[in-house]
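pinning this so it doesn't scroll away 📌
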Amino acid sequence: MPTPSMEDYLERIYQLIDEKGYARVSDIAGALEVHPSSVTKMVQKLDAEEYLIYEKYRGLVLTSKGKKIGKRLVFRHELLEEFMRMIGVDDKRIYKDVEGIEHHLSWEAIDRIGDLVQYFEEDSSRLNDLRNVQQKNDNP
């Protein structure tokens, strides 16, 4: 299993490749706001763990294992953002909150959150009921 730090890199690498078709060390460093030397060290670790193949000066490619994990990590992040938005968390806080919790939740908890999001999406009146409860609690 990748560490939380490895997960952050795999998630971002997956997104960059999905968006641009490639992920360079400089792109990853910019996206994660870290030094390129830190990216190089992590990429070498990810290569050793067979999440990607890295060739110095030539770039990197996710292995099937890396793609599978990366896709799942992006899904987890997007699901948690959607859940936070759904329950009324301020948009300015969502990214920071998701970053703070995503590595600490089990995949079972993520699946149950997915069930809850689906439950609210299937019937808009359910989400309206939640909003009404929140309004009552915010304005006693």
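📌 and the second one:
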Amino acid sequence: MTTKTVAMLLAGGQGTRLGELTKDLAKPAVPFGGKYRIIDFTMSNLANSGISTVGLLVQYSPLILNKHIGIGKPWGLDRQYGGVSILSPYSSREGSAWFSGTADAIVKNLHFVEQYDPDELIILSGDHIYQMDYTKMLEFHRNNNADATISAIEVPFEDANRFGILNTNEDFSIYEFDEKPEHPKNNLASMGVYIFNWRQIRPYLLEDEKDEESDHDFGKDIIPKLLDDEKRLYAYRFDGYWKDVGTIKSYWEANMDLLKEDLQTLLMSQEWPTYPNEENRPPEYIGESAEINNSLISPGSFIEGTIDNSILFVGVETKEGAKIRDSIIFPDVVVGSNVTLERVIVMAEVEIPDGTSIIASDDEPIVISPNNLNDYISEGGSQNE
């Protein structure tokens, strides 16, 4: 399986809806859960599934992401044959090679896939939070003699028009794929996890690349063509936790989900560990005046004050009288004395002055960055709801 299955991990997303969080950072590299980055979940799924040949396709602002992945050691992908290879756009004699769609990204890296001559090609996204055993999906794909298998999850009906919706028969064979339909027929949504028989999908990719009217996208172009040609497509039902952290609110919600008792296995499962590429920091220090309730405190932190239902990354310092609730504090932030923070996301290395009060509404968490900190501080050091 490790030599006949190649995974292509799409990690070039710009993530514009995440605003300041992705201003200079690829979406999969955004910090998450105290000591992780978003991409760590998909990378750990690959490691735990025993898939050891991975092409990581990067594009937007990849510096930090490339550094984080390195040679793939935290996920056991530092090996001579297979392992993880970072695949970036490049120029050729034919011109620019910026990826213009998910399918186009694969076509421009056919040489990487072809050197392994795989039976199956797995297409994954680097910006979702979930734990999934891809070997079970591969078994389902093979048992159904499928040409393509799409992992799917039920989403709330009110959100179904944001996803590709799979309309299936009783045996989960797919007869119709609706990309973000205005009036969805059901709520079974594509997770953006695809398994293709390589020899079946290759000619479709090459043909699509020649189509000037195509968006060169799996959901919009490739999958509908497979259905038109009556290929065997199946939906693989996934019943676990899955979150597309595409907005500030969904990103905040996914972090807060980690503090729920029934979802703590996302970080703490011994059977399915999530591997970080973590820094070597000293143990956290919890002061005498500190009160911590249902929170994650990472190494290297110095904590005074009250921390309630919050996630603090490495190297955070909170001073006496600070009150932090329902918030996410990135690495090396300093929270001054008598500061109040509620429903905020504070980006790395920001220093919140003494006496500041920043309380977000219930509608949308507030992101505090070095660029906008002064907007939330009045002359007296306290502002904002």
